[in-house]
Amino acid sequence: MLVLSERRFAKGALSPRAVSNNRRPDREEGGHDPRVECAMTEDALQPTLDPQLAALQPGAAPRAGRSELYRDLLSRFPAGVTVVTAFDERGEPRGLTLIAFCGVSLEPPLVLVCVDRNSNTLPAIRHSGGFTVNFISSRSDHVARLMATKSADKFERIPWKAPGTAPGGPILDQDSTAHLVCKTVNEVLAGDHWVFLGEVLDGGAVEGAEPLVFHRREFRDLLDDGG
């Protein structure tokens, strides 16, 4: 059994919190399973992908010159898969799949994420003043695919819970290896993306869970020997 262990990054140890639980059950009445519903095929996924991930997907439109070279070179660098979430001005959950994440500083604890200028999640991150980074687990590539789309009902099709610390976004606790709740401390426009620098306020890890990796334009399991 996977055990969720929480750690506070700011003051003292994290105590259990009573948070609003907005999860949908794994199986709804009548036998409907939302996880099966969001296991999309590549053909169904491609037309609605957020631009950042779409550029690295198989079958993406070829680009000439250095853009195509850049895309090809980046696809050879293995990266962890994250879903970055936030709440919009109406309190509705928003989120997108991205691989442009990295740690920046230990003291204070800082991370950065890069969000496409046309992302539907961008206004929510700006409005809330923060975000949550969910490290997607190897068994949940269907969630990474779903959250890479612009589907309006994404959060109705996966389990999630509200964070105990503002101004974070939804925590995908059943589909992640760990999460970081962050407060935005700076944002910079860089080309076709906005770079958000976030201070880590809270977080947790799921012991025993393995991360999902994106490499050579495919989602991969670290434990998969390819056999």
CATH class: Mainly Beta
Summed up, the helix count is: 6
Major beta-sheet overview: 8 strands, antiparallel
Q: Determine the structural class based on helices, strands and strand pairing.
A: alpha+beta
CATH architecture: Roll
CATH topology, by name, is Pnp Oxidase, Chain A
Tell me the span between the first and last alpha carbons.
26 Å
Give the strand tally. Answer: 11
Approximately how much beta-strand content do the residues carry? 25-35%
Segments where pLDDT lies below 50 for 5+ residues?
Answer: 1-48
Let me know the CATH homologous superfamily: Electron Transport, Fmn-binding Protein, Chain A
The residue-averaged pLDDT reads 80
- Gross geometry: globular
Number of domains: 1
What letter string, H or E per element, gives the SSE order? Answer: EHHHHEEEEEHEHEEEE
Integer-rounded radius of gyration: 17 Å
Helix content: 10-25%
Give the tags:
227 residues; alpha+beta; Pnp Oxidase, Chain A; eight-stranded antiparallel β-sheet; 6 helices; 11 strands; disordered N terminus
Question: What secondary-structure arrangement, pairings included, does this model have?
Answer:
Blueprint: E1 3-8, H1 34-37, H2 42-45, H3 51-54, H4 65-75, E2 79-80, E3 82-87, E4 93-98, E5 101-105, E6 110-116, H5 122-128, E7 130-136, H6 141-147, E8 176-190, E9 193-207, E10 212-215, E11 218-221
Antiparallel strand pairs: 1-9, 2-10, 3-4, 3-7, 5-6, 6-9, 7-8, 8-9, 10-11
What does this structure look like?
This protein has 227 residues and is an alpha+beta fold. It has one domain: Roll (Pnp Oxidase, Chain A), CATH 2.30.110.10. It contains six helices and eleven strands. The chain has helices spanning 34-37, 42-45, 51-54, 65-75, 122-128, 141-147, and strands at residues 3-8, 79-80, 82-87, 93-98, 101-105, 110-116, 130-136, 176-190, 193-207, 212-215, 218-221. Strands 1, 3, 4, 5, 6, 7, 8 and 9 form an eight-stranded antiparallel β-sheet that branches. It has a three-stranded antiparallel β-sheet with strand order 2-10-11, with no helix packed on it. A hairpin with a 5-residue loop joins strand 3 (82-87) and strand 4 (93-98). The protein starts with a strand and ends in a 6-residue tail after the last strand. Mean pLDDT is 80; it is low at 1-48.
